[in-house]
Amino acid sequence: xxxxxxxxxxxxxxxxxxKTLMSRLSNAVLQAEGAPLDSxxxxxxxxxxxxxxxxxxxxxxxxxxxxxxLRIAITTPEGALTxxxxxxxxxxxxxxxxxxxxxxxxxxxxxxMLNEIDDGxxxxxxxxxxxxxxxxxxxxxxx
Length: 143
Known about the structure:
single chain; Macrophage Migration Inhibitory Factor; 25% strand
């Protein structure tokens, strides 16, 4: 049940490019969590938001630089990722971003931030979802 948020400078990507980016990120997170990509249940629980920001609202070292980098925040339930899967996910996100916006000369083209929500602190429809509940809904075989 990951939540993906991509903050990008306005007009960085076309709508088609945005859809490709968000699909690839969604699948990368599902893979890192151990969910089958062809699972309708798993796919339905990946919520992703692409948020465009004005170029003049993004600062690097106190300056507006162009091109401006992306900020990618991935939120998962505590225990959904291991150190190994976090490392591989961050590497995969780097490849996806490089493919999407290219490399920036002499600086980073994005930040990736992984956040975990404490077990029992993820909820929807007025109920708490524990990691085991989420893994069952996503057809993930617990290790």
